[in-house]
Amino acid sequence: MDHLFQAIVIGIVQGLTEFLPVSSSAHLILIPPLLGWTDPFLNTATFDVMLHMGTLLALLAYFWRDAIRLVSAWLASIRDRSLAGDPDRRLAWLLVVSVVPAAILGALGESFFDTFFRDPAHSERLYGVCALLIVGALILLAAERVGRRERPIEGTNLVDAVIIGVAQALALFPGISRSGITIATGLFRGLERDAAARFAFLMGIPVIAGAGIWKLRDIIGAPQGSIEYGSLAAGFVAAAIVGFLSIGFLLRFLRAHSTGIFIAYRIVFALLVAAILFLR
Fold it and tell me: Which of 1, 21, 274, 277 has the fewest CB atoms in 10 Å of its CB?
């Protein structure tokens, strides 16, 4: 029962922090040791895959109309060999372009980042995660100060897509945040806050799907009896439900507010965790 409860809590954390610009990877690395949770299964790539599949389901449930429309537009552009002045065809191709650098850099660095900061033998690396949370906060703060926030998502161009795609690779560092760095980069490029978030979420569909499919090999190759299916299901459902709610909240919030509350949270959380680790 304890394992099931822990899986649900971690799923809730994943659902919240995958989409809010506060770094899901940092929270998933820092929270279990802070709470004294030592179940090794909850720190495996297998469990991580199912959490991300849960957040992927949340994205598809929230953006299913956009996804169908954009995929149809993309296929039509291939059939006609033309964008035909269609903003959906254009946006679909920009999303494809943005995913390419993220996919390449992610595949190259995934194995290192999946293990380096999660190694229980080197607990001092947790301080590095705290530092990266603050770095990510400062990037968001700079984006808020510099960004003109004048272009809707329809104004996204090829340069935006490439730069946002490359920037997303920084999310391999736990603490930077995939949504945080893509939203910040969108702001630097002059996108409106909710436009930057929407582009980040739409971009996240193929990115998270690709990463999940890539990591499924860990589930397929796992030794028999090593998978806790109850914990997998609990984490998946919790991440999906909370993730869906988080997407709607953030899009509504950014229409009228800055990311200041998330910047402050990241700094306070990082300093608090670092202090707890130091005093132990």
Answer: 1
